Amino acid sequence: MFRQFGPADVLYILEAARWTLILSAIAFTGGAIGGLAVALARSSQVTLLRVLSTGFIRVFQGTPLLMQLFLFYFGLTVLNLPINPLLAAAIALTFHASAYLGEIWRGSIEAVPSGQSEAATALSLTYRSRMRWVILPQAARIAVAPTVGFLVQLIKGTSLTSIIGFTELTRAGQIVNNATFDPFTVFGLVAVIYFVICWPLSLYARWLEGRMRRAYAR
Amino acid sequence: MYHFNFTPVFDNFDLLLYGAWLTVRLSFAAMVLGLVVSVLGAVARTSRFRGLHWIVGAYVEVIRNTPFLVQIFFLYFGLPAIGISLGPNLAALIALVVNVGAYGTEIARAGIESVPRGQVEAGRALGLGPLQIFRYIIFRPALRNVYPALTSQFIYLMLTSSVVSTISANDLASAGADLNAKTFASFEIYLVVTALYLALSLLFSGLFRALQGALFNYPASR
């Protein structure tokens, strides 16, 4: 017989939501570092770097996140490492985020008018200082809105780690549903928690986008 | 040292290819139905009826801010609890249509809004009805303006559709899972399955780009 869905279950699901947030934070941090590297490589003068980063983006944007998770999960055994869902999830999501953020930020870097880069070169700034002091600060402004938008996609993406057995929000929902068989309530609650996390971010992204559009319309 | 064994994968390659075909079929069906939902959603969103406007807005926001996996669980496990039992394949299709419909509504709305007001007013002045205005004035320019967004939405839909394997609907990912249950060559299987997904997305983005030239080669109005 199934037991009744109760306050303990709500608490269990809420606690698991913490892992959704932690995993999102890890993936976003890792993805920000990787994404910056990918964006710089993608917009560099060196052909090899451009080709490699383009291939990286193609592969990670052209395959399902679920398959990427499986590959890193089973890839650990290939490397003779113990199976660890959190590690596999963190690595897979970091690569995934690196590809998407890399592509978003490449667009932002290229959106900075080329005169800025030329002026910096004319002032004999090195590549490093040109990027650090001239290009990236301006690109960052353009990048904020789509980056926040991608964060929403990333948080939703962490739900797939439940399939490789990592206990975050969705997996907690499945576990509770298996015991109570009350899918409407359980998955309804899970959906509401995701919504509460993601919706403010979506609204913020839209507000930023609107502000940006008005700034550039002037 | 890990010993790679691709034999079980290539002995059953026809199963994976059939799975890839199912993924393509499912994605196209979901996209076509999703586009119908999108256009209706976008029209409802611009309508004067406050209630309709609000309901569509809520639908779009809820779907876009919750994971597809939770949506499909809600549908597949939740509906039987109120007496509506869907098979996994039908549940998968419906979940994908509902999902892509929400993203598509925003795309379609952007498309409709991208057609200058003056053209619609000109159509009205010529005595065209609302359907005629939509058919002859809005549809093609709007489609051209949002074509890139729509095609990348399709690729994204095709990748997302791999999630339907979790409710054991038939597609490429579940063909991989079936093969994995039989042969345990997990890494090799998922490597090949991933490569097949990559081949599909490269194929379709190439195809859509070629189509773009053929469909929208008339001069732009702006």
Give a written overview of the molecule.
The complex is a heterodimer of chains A (218) and B (222). With 218 residues, chain A is mainly alpha-helical. Chain A has one domain: MetI-like fold (Orthogonal Bundle), CATH 1.10.3720. Helices cover 82% and strands 0% of the residues of chain A. Chain A has eight helices and no strands. The longest helix of chain A has 36 residues. Chain A is flat. Chain A starts with 6 loop residues before the first helix and ends with a helix. Chain B is flat and about 75 Å long. Chain B has a single domain, classed as MetI-like (MetI-like fold, Orthogonal Bundle), CATH 1.10.3720.10. Chain B has 222 residues and is mostly helical. Chain B contains nine helices and no strands. The longest helix of chain B is centred in the first third of the chain and has 33 residues. Classes of the chains: A mainly alpha (218), B mainly alpha (222). The interface between A and B is large, with 42 and 37 residues.
Topology:
The complex is a heterodimer of chains A (218) and B (222).
Chain A: H1 7-42, H2 47-61, H3 65-78, H4 85-111, H5 114-122, H6 127-157, H7 169-180, H8 183-217
Chain B: H1 7-11, H2 13-45, H3 50-64, H4 68-81, H5 88-113, H6 117-125, H7 130-160, H8 172-183, H9 186-215
Helix pairs in contact in B: 2-3, 2-5, 2-8, 2-9, 3-5, 4-5, 5-7, 6-7, 7-9, 8-9
